[in-house]
Write a structure and sequence with these properties.
Elements (H helix, E strand, L loop, with lengths): L4 E4 L6 H7 L5 E5 L5 H7 L6 H14 L3 E8 L9 H7 L3 E6 L30 H10 L6 E4 L1 H4 L24 H4 L1 H5 L6 H6 L21
Parallel strand pairs: 1-2, 2-3, 3-4, 4-5
Length: about 220
């Protein structure tokens, strides 16, 4: 396998697990939307100890030679925050800053999640304008790890599978049939994917650890 990335909020990642599996892991991407715990709780991330977990994971990744990446969703609750100090402290190799995106049928209403009644799924209250998003980016412009992703870039530059293993078409048309039913090649013929936007948002980058390319490494979970 060319590269392995785990995307997590970090709450269940323990050092024992990293010690066992770091040799098979290139990147750990940890979500952190604010460096203020009150803001994190308003957003719905954690119960007051998210930052402690986040900083500890950054240290453990360095210890076990795993690339540390930060994912931040820029939204109504963190738009005015200055994150420069903490980002410099944890020093990720990539800091993805996503403009909060409302996806029709996924997070656009209190009953959006394909019929499930989950009020927290309504993302409308988090939305910000393009100008507000740009102001946040300008505030953090000197961060070398910063990788911005606006709504326009994000909408069609990702290939996303839902829980039924269908590619989502992000407001363009209905999801594809499940890849379990028709296979990936057939599903790809019916999904809208903007390869130019994928390249423009830096979708191709160095995603392997420097000292190894993991040729024929067996995963033992």
């Amino acid at each position: 396998m060319e590269s392995v990335t785990v995307v997590t909020n970090g709450s269940l990642v323990k050092e024992k697990w990293l010690h066992q599996h770091a040799q098979h892991l290139d990147i750990m991407a940890v979500s952190c939307d604010s460096f203020n715990e009150r803001t994190n709780m308003l957003i719905g991330r954690g119960k007051g100890n998210h930052l402690e977990t986040f900083v500890k994971l950054s240290q453990l990744c360095r210890k076990h030679n795993v690339k540390f990446k930060v994912n931040t969703v820029v939204c109504r609750y963190n738009i005015d925050e200055d994150m420069n100090g903490m980002i410099a402290k944890v020093a990720p190799f990539r800091w993805k800053c996503f403009q909060v995106l409302v996806v029709e049928g996924e997070n656009d209403s209190s009953t959006a999640l394909r019929g499930l009644i989950i009020s927290a799924q309504n993302a409308q209250r988090f939305t910000i304008s393009n100008d507000e998003y740009q102001t946040f980016l300008d505030r953090h412009a000197y961060q070398k790890a910063l990788v911005p992703e606006s709504n326009n870039v994000m909408k069609s530059s990702y290939l996303i599978l839902d829980e039924h293993m269908r590619f989502l078409n992000k407001n363009v048309k209905e999801p594809t049939k499940s890849i379990l039913e028709i296979g990936v090649p057939a599903a790809m013929n019916d999904v809208y994917w903007d390869e130019e936007s994928f390249a423009r948002r830096g979708g191709e980058y160095e995603w392997q650890k420097e000292e190894e390319k993991k040729e024929d490494m067996a995963l033992d979970f």
